[in-house]
Amino acid sequence: MTLARRPAILLMTWAVVACLAASGNAYAADDSKKEEGWIQLFNGKNLEGWTPKITGYALGENYADTFRVENGVIKVAYDKWPTKFEEKFGHLFYKTPYSHYKLRIEYRFVGEQCPGGPGWAFRNSGVMIHGQAPETMKKDQDFPVSIEVQFLGGNGKDKRSTGNLCTPGTNVVMDGKLILTHCINSKSKTYHGDQWVTVEVEAHGDGVIKHFVNGELVIEYEKPQLDERDKNAKEMIKDGNKLIKGGSISLQAESHPIEFRKVELMPLKD
To answer: Is 8 found in the same domain as 122?
Structure first.
């Protein structure tokens, strides 16, 4: 190789490298665009955009500092409660209702259950979707009319699925049949201890709703609707239409401490 040709070859080499780098950046940009659609409902710093509603208390009253942010996570805590649980169920509502979306939450159970909490509420929480507006809840109402994506933690030995379906004041259709059972277990694995679990919900208005746990589809159903057997839901039925197209999103406080370190949502087209 002559010295005259060497600069030209070097120039070609650097051009190839530059093209590869640009290609890599393009792929990276595409990856980032996939995440750009996600809205962070929890900012990691405070409860901005969220409002508590606890049974027996007015909307916005955060009894005994039940909901708080510490170390970058939303905490449901009972260390400041002066008495036993006494059926004071809590929900932390996000400011915006949604209809078509993907919702992703990372949670973990910690510590011991609040004294007086019901046995079924051991390591039990969830996120309520397609819920009623919080300002329409009665002061002593325990749960919003909604679809509950139930979070359950294991006790260290027994099987206990998470990402289940519960229906306070609602019903759904599965395999073409109207389901009147209050809770339906998913096919998820059991998650013992204080490990973080990721649950994702894909909701299409009054159409199909799917639950995923750590990336695995664990249950799906459709046609969420108001249950006229429930007095609160019955008041919400207008012109005989029971179908629920969307609604509020809220995190639960059911007597066992839990932490949420990510709550994010991607709106979907109708």
So the answer is: no
How many other CB atoms are found less than 10 A from the CB of residue 127? 25
pLDDT tens across 126-167, in order?
999 999 999 999 999 999 999 999 999 999 999 999 999 999
Q: How many Cβ atoms sit within 10 Å of the Cβ of residue 46? A: 11
**Residues 88 and 219 grouped into a single domain:** yes
Q: Encode pLDDT of 38-53 as tens digits.
A: 999 999 999 999 999 9
Give the total number of structural domains in the chain: 2
Same domain, yes or no, for 119 and 212?
A: yes
10: helix, coil or strand? helix
Closest CA to 14 of 4, 2, 22, 25: 22
Domain range enclosing 2: 1-36
Whole-structure pTM value:
0.87
Question: What does the angle CA 143 – CA 230 – CA 177 come to, to the nearest 5 degrees?
Answer: 105
Token pair listed for 15: 């051009």
